[in-house]
Inverse folding.
């Protein structure tokens, strides 16, 4: 889970007074959204139209947010997170009203002089290796343009996080005329997490026995802070958050074994390219065909004296060592499940150890590796529970998709 602060607004240098007023309104609207009556709409809902421009985008599982009271004529929302594996794009599109002249999804001019309300925030993802798909999408949607009252266009500055905000800055400038203004990635993640947890009901939930147990928004700071945020992207960042103020957080740990590890290894070993297909494949496999379990070592028995059941994984992919088989002889689903569990269990253990180290009772997970996938959430949930029992400490935890 990441949220962006201070989304895009056009520059105001060198503009005449009339144009400057338009840009100021757009800039003000882009720093504060009207969340009154906001709701989430899943793109998979029956009757939800497919976006013909979304070629190359990873749109599955990416719902939009309906903002019925947002001043559509004054909003210009577009922001980017350009990570090592994925590019995440958020943008606003106004609802169409009779008498409204649409210029771009970012700004609309009203021929009647009235300011209509309503629109939605869209969330789209692209593979970083296929950055041209992202650039084509922005260009086709007209998100790179800022059309002013006099019909002219001005340079657009876009808030962006991630290493790609530096790496690809020149490409965005040359190809689209966009200026990427880099924001601190962890600061934005923490700020967005604080906002969601304190404002949005049912944004966080615990996941147990394939069921989500939603947690209401937490308005009292003493009931929320401190907590541990485990942000799972290509790698993993583990952040201790002590309060709502700026700088009241610190990165206390992390790991190079994250979502990108699962994606890369799964692609090498199974030939599957799409991340969603990999996660779906993992639900169909049997990891015991490749993982060495405690029962494999102890003749099918538990190691009860230290709390290990026969089904506990003793060594990920350990059974492969003693098998005289080629890669193509293995079931890709078994391999995918083993990889998913290996990565998820490792993340869960790291989260538990850091929570124990800092005596934190609330752990929140977020990032693309989670993304509402039940099996991944179940695996991390199991890992936390397993280590909590070993350490004789009961932890309260929630997962942010």
């Amino acid at each position: 889970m990441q949220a962006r602060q201070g989304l895009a607004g056009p520059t105001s240098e060198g503009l005449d007074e009339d144009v400057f007023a338009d840009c100021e309104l757009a800039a003000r609207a882009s720093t504060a959204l009207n969340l009154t009556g906001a709701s989430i709409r899943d793109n998979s809902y029956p009757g939800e139209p497919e976006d013909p421009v979304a070629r190359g985008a990873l749109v599955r599982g990416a719902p939009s947010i309906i903002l019925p009271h947002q001043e559509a004529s004054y909003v210009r929302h577009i922001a980017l997170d350009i990570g090592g594996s994925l590019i995440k794009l958020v943008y606003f599109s106004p609802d169409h009203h009779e008498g409204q002249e649409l210029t771009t999804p970012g700004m609309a001019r009203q021929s009647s002089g009235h300011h209509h309300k309503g629109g939605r925030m869209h969330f789209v993802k692209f593979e970083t290796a296929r950055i041209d798909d992202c650039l084509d999408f922005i260009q086709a949607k007209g998100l790179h343009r800022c059309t002013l009252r006099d019909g002219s266009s001005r340079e657009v500055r876009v808030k962006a996080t991630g290493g790609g905000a530096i790496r690809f800055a020149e490409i965005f400038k040359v190809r689209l005329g966009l200026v990427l203004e880099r924001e601190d990635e962890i600061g934005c993640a923490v700020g967005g997490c604080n906002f969601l947890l304190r404002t949005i009901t049912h944004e966080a939930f615990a996941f147990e026995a394939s069921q989500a147990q939603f947690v209401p928004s937490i308005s009292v700071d003493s009931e929320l802070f401190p907590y541990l945020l485990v942000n799972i992207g290509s790698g993993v960042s583990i952040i201790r958050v002590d309060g709502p103020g700026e700088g009241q957080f610190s990165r206390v740990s992390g790991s190079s074994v994250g979502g990108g590890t699962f994606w890369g290894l799964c692609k090498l070993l199974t030939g599957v390219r799409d991340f969603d297909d990999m996660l779906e494949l993992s639900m169909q496999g049997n990891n015991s065909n490749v993982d060495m379990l405690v029962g494999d070592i102890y003749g099918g028995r538990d190691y009860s004296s230290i709390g290990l059941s026969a089904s506990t994984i003793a060594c990920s992919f350990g059974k492969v060592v003693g098998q005289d088989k080629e890669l193509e002889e293995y079931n890709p689903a078994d391999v995918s499940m083993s990889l998913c569990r290996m990565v998820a269990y490792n993340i869960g253990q790291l989260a538990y150890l850091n929570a124990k180290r800092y005596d934190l009772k609330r752990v929140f997970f977020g990032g693309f590796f989670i993304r509402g996938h039940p099996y991944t959430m179940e695996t991390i949930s199991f890992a936390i529970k397993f280590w909590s029992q070993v350490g004789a400490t009961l932890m309260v935890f929630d997962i942010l998709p």
Q: What stands out?
A: The first helix runs from residue 17 to 29. Residues 1-30, 44-49, 99-113, 391-397 have pLDDT under 50 and may be disordered. DSSP finds eleven helices and 19 strands in the chain. Residues 158 and 195 are 21 Å apart (CA to CA).
